[in-house]
Amino acid sequence: MKINGQDHDVSRDIKMTRPAFGGHLMASIFCPRFRPAMATVRPGVMKKREFCADCAEKVEILHPAFELSASDIKTEVVETVKAAKKLVDLIGADYIVSVGRGISKDVEGGIKLAEELAGVLGGVVGSSRACVDAGWISADHQVGQTGKTVHPRIYVALGISGAIQHKAGMQDSECIIAVNEDPEGCVERNKIREDIFYRLCVLRYDIPELYRRKGDIPLLMEYFRKHYNKKFHKQIMAYSSEVQDIFLAYNWPGNVRELKNVIESAFHNNHTAILTRNDIPNYILSRLAVDTMHAEDVRGLPLHGTRSSSSRTPTAATAAASPKRRRSCRSASRTSPIR
User: What is the dihedral of CA 72, 78, 84, 86, to 10 degrees?
Assistant: First the structure.
């Protein structure tokens, strides 16, 4: 090979190979025209090898002689300022819990959940680039091609889609746990094989819908009251008895997240020390009124009454003749993947 009209031995060049186009291609890079040539590697890309005394003895350390004068110094260090913030050590962590765009509906809660899980495991919190770009979390948490490359024992991904750029930074983890979709739903949609689901489903926690555990509602109401008092610097002391009755009667199809959002909305509407019916979003009262009216209409119908075929309201006889259908419809209307 000729460089600048002269023969050049390519075998003596540094050959650098790196992923390109999001990891779809591997590009080999040579620098035959410039010396010295240098290659840099991001921390964590390569695993540290065991110390080898024989290899260490073969290393030749050179101490080139050079002299610098004051005229050679073009830059002057005026002041060194160290940030007080402690950066997260992703590279040395054995357990990483990362969050992604899936926490967008409750960013604060999603990050807090990741921090709690990381604390239990003795690990740290990571993130996808989407969260960093959105300003939800600082850049030192980013894992991926433009972040840090990690090799933890366990990598937990919460709400991360699995883009190639992110996989490039964590694909060599010993164990990867991804929480992005309902596994049973994936089986039904043939996204994963049923036998794999049974192999992976070792430890499972099923959280019932909120309407099935009405005893939790007063506890959650009190928790969110204290939470939003602190967050919004308010002094709301209690809920009115009417609000308590409404919250216990409502079916909460959005589960805990809906309850949380309704209470936050009530805080914004309230200007007194007690949360009242007037502070609750109108849709809650409307839905509750419709459910109550429907229940009263069904109870008031004669057991063997008849209606015209054009009526869309089911009769008690029809409901009694198909109890399975009624139960399945009610279950479908109340079931929600949101917890």
Answer: -10
Tokens representing 289 are 């009124």
DSSP 163-203: -HHHHHHHTT-SEEEEESS-HHHHHHTTSS-HHHHHHH-SS
Cα–Cα distance for residue pair 105/254, rounded to 1 Å? 12
- With tokens 């209409």, the residue in question is 297
Q: For residue range 30-66, what is the model confidence (pLDDT) as tens digits? A: 777 777 788 887 766 677 778 888 888 888 888 888 8
Q: Is the dihedral of CA 226, 228, 234, 238 positive or negative?
A: negative
Alpha carbon distance 174, 136 (integer Å): 27
**If you search the block for the tokens 């840090």, which residue do you land on?**
148
Structure tokens at 216: 């939790």
60 Cβ neighbours under 8 A, 6+ residues apart: none
Q: Are 133 and 109 in contact (CB under 8 A)?
A: no
pLDDT digits (tens, 9 = 90+) for 142-166: 998 888 889 899 999 988 877 778 8
Token readout for 183 is 């596994």
Q: Are 145 and 124 in contact (CB under 8 A)?
A: no
Bridge partners of 28, per DSSP, are: 17
Q: What angle do CA 35, 36, 39 make, to 5 degrees?
A: 120
Res. 169: pLDDT tops 50:
yes
